[in-house]
Amino acid sequence: MAEARGVRSASAGRRVPGLRRVWCCSFAAAPDSPDHRRSSSTHRELRPSKTPPKLSHPGSFHSSPSPSSKLGLGIIDPRRILSPGRVSPIDSDGPLGPLPGILDAASISTTAAESEPECPDPAPKERSLVPDKPKTDTRVSLRERSLDLRLCLRGKDGRCLVLELDSAVLCESSAFFSAMVMDSTRKVSDADCQKIEVAGVEDVDVFKETIELMYEKDASRWLMKAGVSRAIGILEVCLKIMFDRGMRSCLGYIEAVPWTETEEEKLKRLFARSTIDKAICEDVLARLDPQDCNHSEDLAVQLIQSVTNATNGNARKEMRSLVNGLLSKSSVYQKEPVGLNKGSLYNVCHSCLNSLVKLFEEALNSIPMDQMTAGKRTKPLIERVSKQVENLNWLLEILMDKEMAEDFVGLWGNQKELIRMHERASPMLRYELSRISANVFIALGLRKLQCPGGMRFSILQSWFGPMLMDFGWLQRCSKGLDMRMLEESLGQVILTLRLKQQQILFEEWFRCFAGHGTECPNLCKAFQVWWRRSFVRTCEARR
């Protein structure tokens, strides 16, 4: 290797005439040769004033120039065909022309910059509210000339919005703006663009949308995209600026779509503080103010009657829950509780009692029903009796909630016919009647229901015996009835009577309890209280 370097350096120092070296590396610059040295000096003297333009190759890196770039810079002779890893011989027939000298990096960048044409940046233009239009378009020029009014909207929150509008459309749509434009024309007659201002705007965006509605051809489609809440706000602005076409469009859209409770309250407040012709908003007002509807009391009784006549059990439960929500004092639908007509409500109770009597008569009838009648009846007798009992218990809850249940105690205590049929009916049917008695006793024992002493004794005298007979069935089929509460309430109700009346009922209970045990209610605590009040205190007082 040292000898080779020595030979190379020696050959570089002296010339050997007639001897020509051949090189084969395709990735390096041409080595120094006699021809090359002569051409380089000549090239420095005859350097062209303008270098060829720089060729850009996006696919090659700056560290490894492509062959075409070498050709353009004069590094590789154009007659050579170079390929990596192969030797491309030079044709020795013709003499090689002088190779151009290699340019440094500074000269290449300068040359490329000089060769590229300079494109001056366009001058910046100021943006205007109205975009630039070509002068050749006559229609656009007319449209530009039509924007002859500048409207300034100043909100109460300090916000300001300026709109450039066509005064002809604005004045044609609104009598309010027509008067403002005429007043502005008298004051400033020589101005190219008139200016008007509306101050104290509640909502600048809603006011702007109302102005936009004046220039819309299809107002209904525009309002459909806006929604009911925004349409109500636009309606309020239309009323203030006397924009009749927009007001009719808003009312027509609002009447045709459903409302949420928030939108309904917003609409009610708008009609309360605004004056609108009833002929225009008649359809909307009909949805807000039920002028020809029945009174709520009569309607509520009709709903209760419909629930009691319902034949589907699941639907009856759903409707019962719905009516309870409407009638409750904490209802979200009414700010004040719905009143009920006491007479109409008790008429429903009488209807249910009459149906119950007929069902027990059917149960006690010794003559079997014909097959045609039996085929028409799809519900079993027990289910129909249970339905009427549930209706009466539900009516009792409504009456207690409205503080009108006092008469129900007397009504249930005077059912002599049902009491008579109770003794002969099947236990599966008769215990349903004791469910009504149990709810009355619980209401009296918990102080939810107050009635005179004679009425209390009447109902206990009528239904206390049937309760003792049906208590075992109530325990097995309670249907949500709290039996422990029933026992305590029954004892408390008996203790509210006179001592002689208490003695009659407790003696009856003692005989039944001695024969049936747990099949009867446990009234031991109440019995002890009665015994102490009747005999122990009396004996002490005598002493």
Automatic annotation (TrEMBL):
Residue span of region Disordered: 29-74, 84-103, 110-139
Biased composition (Low complexity): 56-74
Keyword set includes Transferase: no
Pfam families to which the protein is assigned, alphabetical: BTB-POZ_ANK-like
Keyword annotations from UniProtKB, A to Z: Ubl conjugation pathway
Composition bias, Basic and acidic residues: 33-48, 123-139
Annotated metabolic or biological route of this protein: Protein modification; protein ubiquitination
Domain At3g05675-like ankyrin-like: 295-537
Record has Transmembrane as a keyword: no
Primary role: May act as a substrate-specific adapter of an E3 ubiquitin-protein ligase complex (CUL3-RBX1-BTB) which mediates the ubiquitination and subsequent proteasomal degradation of target proteins.
Protein's recorded name: At3g05675-like ankyrin-like domain-containing protein
